[in-house]
Design brief:
By secondary structure, this protein is mainly α. 71% of the residues lie in helices and 0% in strands.
Length: 119
């Protein structure tokens, strides 16, 4: 059973749009938008499952849309790497490093707030 070309093309377009939204969120360091784009990405990827059933005669349309999707993914990768470098360098300038520290001292150092401790 073949899925309609418009349905398949729409699924690829949704993926491209979600990746473009992700790139914009990374470029602006907008966490709320980045989290929202993650939901859109997951939804778009779920819709891609019917793509394997696409009619081979529609390949040119898909190729064009997928090229745009690949470009958006490359932009996300570059922006994500740049943002990671920025965070790493910023933390390094403060004498801190990336990583998980379960102690309250890390939270206090980052927020400037202290915690009351029971002795």
């Amino acid at each position: 059973m073949n899925t309609s070309p418009q349905g398949n093309l729409a699924a690829v377009a949704r993926l491209r749009t979600a990746l473009e939204d992700t790139a914009a969120a990374l470029a602006e360091a907008d966490l709320a938008r980045l989290l929202a784009s993650d939901t859109a990405l997951q939804s778009a990827l779920s819709a891609m499952s019917g793509l394997a059933k696409a009619d081979p005669s529609d390949r040119l349309q898909f190729r064009r849309e997928l090229e745009g999707t690949a470009a958006a993914l490359l932009r996300c990768r570059r922006l994500g790497a740049g943002l990671s470098d920025f965070v790493r360098i910023s933390l390094g300038a403060r004498g801190e490093q990336l990583g998980y520290e379960p102690s309250r001292e890390a939270a206090a150092a980052l927020t400037g707030r202290g915690f009351s401790k029971r002795v």
